[in-house]
């Protein structure tokens, strides 16, 4: 494996860490409705846990509510129960052909708790990125031990991995700051 391949692999893995962070943060409820809020809700569909998105369409009705329209009407009670049990603090209202999910306004205290969670998620992403850097540098050191690269190439590669890490950590910080601002917006 060459230094370029190691660097390309590290960059790909760091991008996945950022995407994972963004995915986790979309599950956190801000003051606005987002269809992604219900992404991790699982429905008992013919005795198999199935993601809500596979049995219904989720759309944003307005800034404070979602509408879930199941493809099979007999799923309405199951979807209603799954949303209630998802731990999101939501109380869906079922009708004959869809489920309306009003989003209550967040209290100041709840917003601050959510900011703490956002920061924890951000720190988790930073740690993952640093671990990728450590693994990459370790691979480069192995190449040096096997006498496949020179000491100078090893040092340059380490500097390149540090710059890459700094770039992605800055991106994590930007994502976290944007989510915090979104949460604190009333």
UniProtKB/TrEMBL annotation:
Main location: cytoplasm
SUPFAM superfamilies per the UniProt record, alphabetical: Ribosome recycling factor, RRF
Assigned protein family: Belongs to the RRF family.
Alphabetized UniProt keyword annotations: Cytoplasm, Protein biosynthesis
Compartments it resides in: Cytoplasm
Superkingdom, taxonomy of origin: Bacteria
Pfam families with a match to the protein in the record: RRF
Name this polypeptide is given: Ribosome-recycling factor
Domain Ribosome recycling factor: 21-184
Signal peptide location: none
The organism of origin for this protein: Acidithiobacillus sulfurivorans
Purpose: Responsible for the release of ribosomes from messenger RNA at the termination of protein biosynthesis. May increase the efficiency of translation by recycling ribosomes from one round of translation to another.
NCBIfam families: frr
């Amino acid at each position: 494996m060459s230094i370029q391949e190691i660097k390309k692999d590290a960059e790909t893995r760091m991008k996945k860490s950022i995407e994972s962070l963004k995915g986790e943060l979309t599950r956190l409820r801000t003051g606005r409705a987002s269809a992604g809020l219900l992404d991790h809700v699982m429905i008992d569909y013919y005795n198999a846990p199935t993601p809500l998105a596979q049995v219904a369409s989720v759309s944003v009705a307005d800034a404070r509510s979602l509408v879930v329209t199941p493809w099979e009407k007999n799923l309405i009670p199951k979807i209603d129960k799954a949303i209630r049990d998802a731990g999101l603090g939501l109380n869906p209202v079922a009708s004959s052909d869809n489920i309306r999910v009003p989003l209550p306004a967040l209290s100041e205290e709840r917003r601050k708790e959510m900011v703490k969670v956002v920061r924890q998620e951000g720190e988790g992403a930073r740690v993952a990125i640093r671990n990728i850097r450590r693994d990459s540098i370790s691979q480069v050191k192995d190449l040096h031990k096997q006498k496949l690269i020179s000491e100078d190439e090893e040092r340059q590669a380490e500097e390149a991995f540090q710059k890459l890490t700094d770039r992605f950590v800055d991106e994590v910080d930007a994502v976290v700051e944007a989510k915090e601002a979104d949460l604190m917006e009333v």
